[in-house]
Design a protein that fits this description.
Strand content of chain A: over 45%
Distance between the termini of chain A: 37 Å
Radius of gyration of chain A: 13 Å
Order of helices and strands of chain A: EEEEEEEEEEE
Number of strands of chain B: 12
Number of helices of chain A: 0
Shape of chain A: globular
Shape of chain B: globular
Helix content of chain B: under 10%
Oligomer: heterodimer
Largest interface: A-B, 20 and 19 residues
Helix content of chain A: under 10%
Largest sheet of chain A: 7 strands, mixed
Structural class of chain B: mainly beta
Number of helices of chain B: 0
């Protein structure tokens, strides 16, 4: 079946550094990719929707200058957490919509810990 | 706005017990409803979905019916197995299909 590869699965970084998370659709093309954040005991929260070749659409309350999203190709979207702080520590998940059948596939997530 | 409220866990059941995980939603328009499952160490996978009122989604013995009158999409299984141990997420997508909203997730542990 369709696979979305999300990398890295876990990252620990120092406060003030930037972290890039990649989301790749391995065997299908994705015109739309979504980035979510999961807080402990809370819902997955949609952060932004990225469309290939255009600027991402951010949800209310999500800082676009802090969470940089790039969707440069039909198989790759990246989320860069700039100048990370401990409060950015969370579980981030991407998903990709198959352009041929509109099905949505999820990455396995990235656990970010900012020290 | 759109939101999903899901029964909190964790839920622990004996093998072959009956499972219900409640899910209610608020939405504008006519959303599609989903149940996703996350097995340990894996990504989220679609379990079943329903795209309009009264539709019943079913897969692997699980089923859920889209109830517009009660704005609910409860997940049920008649006889759970140890292999069903996972976290289950209820979700809706807006009627434009561009946004997803998830519940908090319910952890299910099935003991032999």
């Amino acid at each position: 079946g369709a696979v979305v590869s999300q990398h890295p699965s876990r990252v620990i970084c120092k406060s003030g550094t930037s972290v890039k998370i990649e989301c790749r659709s391995l065997d299908f093309q994705a015109t739309t990719m979504f980035w979510y954040r999961q807080f402990p005991k809370k819902s997955l929260m949609l952060m932004a929707t990225s469309n290939e070749g255009s600027k991402a659409t951010y949800e209310q309350g999500v800082e676009k200058d802090k969470f940089l999203i790039n969707h440069a190709s039909l198989t790759l979207s990246t989320l860069t957490v700039t100048s990370a702080h401990p409060e950015d520590s969370s579980f981030y998940i991407c998903s990709a919509r198959d352009k041929n059948n509109e099905k949505l596939f999820f990455g396995s997530g990235t656990q970010l810990s900012v020290l | 706005g759109n939101s999903v409220t899901q029964m909190e866990g964790p839920v622990t059941l004996s093998e072959e017990a009956f499972l219900t995980i409640n899910c209610t939603y608020t939405a504008t328009g006519y959303p599609s409803l989903f149940w996703y499952v996350q097995y340990p160490g894996e990504g989220l996978q679609l379990l079943l979905k329903a795209t309009k009122a009264d539709d019943k989604g079913s897969n692997k013995g699980f089923e859920a019916t889209y109830r517009k009158e009660t704005t609910s999409f409860h997940l049920e299984k008649g006889s759970v197995q140890v292999s069903d141990s996972a976290v289950y997420f209820c979700a809706l997508s807006s009627n434009t299909g561009n946004q997803f909203y998830f519940g908090t997730g319910t952890s299910l542990t099935v003991i032999p």
